Amino acid sequence: MPASMKDRVAIVTGGTRGIGLATARSLLDRGATVCITGRSTEQLADALTQLDAGERAIGVAGHAAEAAHQDATVARVMAEFGSVDVLVNGVGINPYYGSTSDLPEDVAIKMFRTNVLAALAWFTRCEQAWMGEHGGSVVNLSSAGAYRGGPLLGSYGITKAAMIRLTEQLALEKAPRRIRVNAVAPGTVRTKFAAQFWEGNEEAAAAAYPLGRAGEPEDVAEAIAFLASDDASWITGQTLAIDGGLLLTTLVDSLA
């Protein structure tokens, strides 16, 4: 039986849909109290309705890369629940498809700010508010694209590779404070974010994977919940590939 997360409080950024929403549900199923974030108040309300967890789930609207939103979210969680034991950095953007050498500078800055620097900022706030004195667990969302290049997603993959390195560094630095930091690296998952890689082309997308299918949000969510829980109490600084065997192959075009 999975370790109980009763009395644990988690923040899941980007928790209104896809992997983030499935992660919130998995953490709730283990007994945790969860705060999800998202940019749209309507999507937050819909997600909370789907989670149907009453007072054990709240939502805070805002842009994940903005300091004011980060401060407001952590402050509300501390005020309402008294701790921040788990942080899941689930937010990521990919506004550019094409050659990395043609990546506009402003787009590159936006990607790194959201995909990498925001994760560090969320970590810092959670550490200052609670984890620095009490320990905790952080799970970052990377990508199988961090390990291999491709014709369209190279720039996105670079940010996700940086996420892996950030995970390792924070894990090393914060281990004495009993803060574990890990990451997951999914392949193509059937979410709106990755729709162009599977929607309307599901048979071909599935064929790219040795296990014969693209991923589901729950595949990733359950791994995140495991890493966040005491079941993984002696695991830190690791990145778990959740990719249906894709990284065992030489295929790169379908990495998401």
CA radius of gyration: 17 Å
Q: Into which percent range does the helicity of residues fall?
A: 40-55%
Percentage of residues in strands: 5-15%
Report the CATH superfamily.
NAD(P)-binding Rossmann-like Domain
Mean pLDDT: 92
- Give the count of structural domains: 1
- What is the name of the CATH architecture? 3-Layer(aba) Sandwich
CATH topology: Rossmann fold
Q: Helix/strand-derived class?
A: alpha/beta
Number of strands: 7
Largest sheet: 7 strands, parallel
Q: Can you offer a commentary on this structure?
A:
With 256 residues, this protein is an alpha/beta fold. The protein has one domain: NAD(P)-binding Rossmann-like Domain (Rossmann fold), CATH 3.40.50.720. The protein contains 7 helices and 7 strands; from the N terminus they run E-H-E-H-E-H-E-H-E-H-E-H-H-E. The protein has a 7-stranded parallel beta sheet, with helices on both faces. Helix 5 links the parallel strand 5 and strand 6. Helix 3 packs parallel to helix 4. The longest helix is centred in the middle third of the chain and has 30 residues. It is globular. The two termini are 32 Å apart.
